């Protein structure tokens, strides 16, 4: 388990002074990578084999949003792993250790030379220590879509400020992109990552409203999918 403590700052809040959805993703992403970096054996194995992790899915359930200047703690840990995927929980707590937002995420092992998902030896998994799985509603890895219901509502090109050091759109920036197409007060965000979008790529936004959910599909102009985002208004 890895833990980081911080205070909600002005750059992380929305118009109501509450932690932004993308800031939740930023905090969880940062904590997860700090945890990976703190694991000396894992880092050594990744470096020697030119391997990294590609985020496949993140589900975030939101109980309460902290406000500006609130003290919060972010904790993350891996609870399961197989030869293809690792599974982790990340939780944001208030200063009294009450859960504010909980997450489960799935990451695939990727060969940095080819960009292809790979399998790691079972011997590597056997030596890893896992933590207890968080109690939450684990929805499927694949977000169900119906192309007959999805309608194009916008398209735009990827800008420089969205790009991270992997030279593609940072995972949290998809939330910044998506937030304009959903109403406020959502309780859950699920995002399935497919093909990374790069600088200058055109993102075609397709939207459907199904029951209490807003479904967004970010495609390229050839209908290849970058990401699927689902906002739910109940847990």
Automatic annotation (TrEMBL):
GO BP terms, alphabetized: fatty acid biosynthetic process
Name of the protein: Acyl-ACP thioesterase
One Pfam family hit: Acyl-ACP_TE_C
Molecular function in Gene Ontology: thiolester hydrolase activity
InterPro entries according to UniProt: Acyl-ACP_TE_C, Acyl-ACP_thioesterase_NHD, HotDog_dom_sf
Domain Acyl-ACP thioesterase-like C-terminal, first and last residues per copy: 152-208
Acyl-ACP thioesterase N-terminal hotdog domain sequence ranges: 2-127
Transmembrane segments: none
Gene3D superfamilies, A to Z: Hotdog Thioesterase
């Amino acid at each position: 388990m890895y833990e980081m403590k911080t205070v909600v700052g002005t750059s992380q809040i929305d118009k109501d002074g509450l932690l932004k959805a993308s800031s939740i993703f930023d905090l969880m992403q940062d904590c997860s990578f700090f945890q990976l970096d703190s694991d000396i054996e894992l880092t050594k194995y990744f470096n020697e084999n030119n391997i990294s992790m590609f985020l496949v899915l993140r589900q975030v359930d939101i109980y309460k949003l902290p406000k500006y200047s609130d003290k919060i703690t972010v904790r993350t840990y891996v609870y399961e792993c197989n030869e293809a995927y690792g599974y982790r929980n990340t939780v944001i707590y208030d200063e009294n250790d009450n859960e504010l937002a909980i997450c489960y995420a799935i990451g695939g092992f990727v060969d940095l030379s080819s960009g292809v998902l790979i399998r790691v030896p079972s011997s590597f998994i056997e030596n890893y220590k896992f933590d207890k799985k968080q109690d939450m509603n684990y929805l499927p890895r694949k977000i169900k879509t119906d192309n007959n219901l999805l309608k194009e509502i916008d398209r735009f090109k990827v800008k420089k400020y969205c790009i991270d050091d992997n030279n593609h759109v940072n995972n949290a920036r998809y939330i910044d992109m998506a937030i304009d197409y959903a109403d406020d007060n959502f309780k859950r965000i699920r995002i399935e990552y497919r093909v990374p979008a790069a600088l200058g790529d055109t993102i075609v936004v397709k939207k459907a409203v199904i029951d209490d959910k807003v479904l967004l599909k970010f495609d390229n102009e050839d209908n290849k999918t970058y990401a699927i985002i689902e906002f739910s208004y109940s847990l």
